[in-house]
Amino acid sequence: MTERLAATPSGIATAARILQDGGLVAFGTETVYGLGGDATQPSAVARIFEAKNRPRFNPLISHFASAEAAFTQVQANPLAQKLAEKFWPGPLTLVLPRAPGSTVSDLAADGLSSLAVRVPRGEAVLALLEEVGRPVAAPSANRSGRISPSDASHVLEELSGRIDAVLDTGPCAVGLESTVLDLTNPDRPCLLRPGGVSVEALEAVCGALARPETEADAAPLSPGRMLSHYAPSLPVRLNATSVGPQEGLLAFGPTPPTGAAVTWNLSPTGNLEEAASRLFSGLRFLDSQQPTFELTGLAVQPIPAHGLGLAIQDRLHRAAAPRPAEPDAP
Ligand code: TXA
Ligand code: MG
Predict the structure, then answer these.
(1) Would the pLDDT of 329 be above 50?
(2) For ligand 1, is residue 221 a contact (CB within 6 Å)?
(3) Is 21 exposed, middle or buried (0-12, 13-18, 19+ CB in 10 A)?
(4) The domain at 3-225 falls in which architecture?
(5) Which segments constitute the YrdC-like domain (predicted)?
(6) pLDDT tens string 285-328
(7) What are the C-alpha distances in Å from 276 to residues 96, 207, 234?
(8) Would you say the ipTM is above 0.90?
(9) Are 146 and 330 in contact (CB under 8 A)?
(10) Are strands 247-251 and 262-265 parallel, antiparallel or unpaired?
(11) Does 222 sit in the ligand 1 pocket, CB within 6 Å?
């Protein structure tokens, strides 16, 4: 049974106790819902992989209530301090060398000498992390390869019966995952995954960001970058300027093409932040309309490549990628 907990002091206290006891609790952050487990308990971390059906162990982000708490687990450099001051709590994940005394289990860190840390935004999640008092590992609370959840009901669709509880903190404000920045070499900050903090905002602080040389280089480092991720069950066609009668349309802006069976407009005013916050719910909604309209696929209008548009494009590119021959999730 998966319990749905309200984001009240008593719901938060129950969630904290479950986590301390090695159980799994999904909770909302400003980005997406995370599937949380105590990062210091290898058995809790193993349960996360099992619940998600992850094909292999991958390094997880450790979540903290404050930068001070996060920086007990990693060796922060001045650039990390500066970014933490500017963007935390918020949708930025920093990859840093693990501190010698780090209590995060090797399983959560995938045996790497680096660790990804983040302080999420949101009153309830911060209260929860404070109360747990330990690093909480939390990948997105979906089955591996599927659309990330931006609402408690999405989590239950994906993971009901496989986790102990979900702390219902309402819909996620940003709606797509955090930006992952590798600062293990502070002279060469490297963008591992575009996300909720735009590249422009980061470059204003860090200067130009390096990118992993190729997709293959990045994949082992950042599995959120694996192709065929965030996938709805229908095929996805990108940069569509016209649409067929059996297609669902993921639209953007005031003048979407007409003729789709069903349309979800990410932002009628063309606002990229609104579009990011409505992306995963839109993919889920259109996918759910398949039986009603006998949809054969989803068409996606072009999305501009600036601000959060880059992260939106990244997720859509993965949603449209060729699927593995044998999907790992039913
Ligand atoms: O917004 C988010 O980041 C959400 C919420 C729940 O916080 N979490 C999330 O976790 O997206 P996950 O596990 O789906 O993605 C974590 C990303 C992966 O791409 C992973 O490879 C990368 O962070 N990562 C974690 N540890 C790393 C490390 N030591 N070095 C490089 N990349 C790392
Ligand atoms: Mg994910």
Answers:
(1) no
(2) yes
(3) exposed
(4) Alpha-Beta Complex (3.90)
(5) 9-197
(6) 999 999 999 999 999 999 999 988 998 998 899 889 887 654 44
(7) 27, 25, 20
(8) yes
(9) no
(10) parallel
(11) yes
Angle at the Cα of 76 (from 75 to 77), degrees rounded to 5?
A: 120
Q: Is 188 annotated as a binding residue?
A: no
Q: Does the annotation place 153 within a ligand binding site?
A: no
Ligand 2 centroid, distance to 139 Cα (angstroms): 6
Structure tokens at 289: 């309309």
- This prediction has a pTM of 0.86
In which residue are the tokens 């759910």 written?
A: 288
Tokens of 115: 């660790």
> Which atom, in ligand 1's list, is nearest to the CA of 180?
23
Q: What is the pLDDT of residues 102-149, one digit of tens each?
A: 999 988 988 788 999 999 999 999 999 999 999 999 999 999 888 999
* Domain limits, the chain: 3-225, 236-319
Query: What tokens were used for 330?
Result: 């039913």
How do residues 179-192 score in pLDDT, each as one tens digit?
Answer: 999 999 999 999 99
Structure tokens at 79: 């650039």
Residue owning the nearest CA to atom 12 of ligand 1: 139
